[in-house]
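ok so for the tutorial part 2 we go from a plain amino acid sequence to predicted structure tokens. step 1 is just haveing the sequence, like this:
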Amino acid sequence: MLENNITTTISAHEQISMTETAANYFSEEFTEKNLNGFGVRMRVVQGDCNCNDYSYQMEYTNEAEESDMIFSSQGLSIICDPKSYPFLKGLVLDYSGDENSAGLRLINPNASKSCGCGSSFSV
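step 2 — the prediction. this is what the tokens look like for a chain of 123 residues:
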């Protein structure tokens, strides 16, 4: 369902994307949770954290609104609403770690500062 609405008119450096390691992480999550055909929805909300002006929200979904932007990266879909996109333009989802410590990292070229946990940012 998500594959039918891929946003293709945006240049590669302005798309929201993910690294191969992040794609492997999400693929494993989708398989373990039986979420066939799902993608990652990225959203920005204002004032949800004391550290910075904006916070990231992420969820797994297999639905998109007509106005949503859908990016294909590493064979998976990333869904973003038009209000969040200016804050997420060029964002790269990355995953790194080992058996002692692992997690997602959001590389946002629009952020002037980010909190230590990586869940909020300012522009």
